[in-house]
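Appendix B, Record 12. Input sequence as logged:
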Amino acid sequence: MGELVRFSVSIEKELLVSFDRLINERGYQNRSEAIRDAIRRQLIHREWEAGEAVAGVITLLYDHHRPGLSEALTGLQHHALAQVISTTHIHLDGSNCLEFIAVKGEAREIEILADRLTSLKGVKHGELTATSTGEKLA
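Logged structural output:
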């Protein structure tokens, strides 16, 4: 960890009360930890906006009985080998599968891949969870 720096922030009392309630609900030990997380969240958002090298997870819930869907999902992943790091496939029940696809690469390419995967017929729900490679975060 780098050198800690103290600084002060002026905010409305009502906003601070709401913030304290939120960080208490989420289990933060103190305001500093919550503020650090909020700053990191903004920095990660900026990395994605700027199209930098980022990481994430594409989550898919789909009907594995849908004809051709498994092949289409696999095909899209094979065409994105530069971005796809790993895939975990889980059978939830007799019809539903849950898949987690870990990705790393240029933000726009990951977003395009996520859009292509989640828009396939038979995918019930899909979501991209965006994060950082961690290289630029303290």
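The domain at 13-49 is CATH 1.10.1220 (Arc Repressor Mutant).
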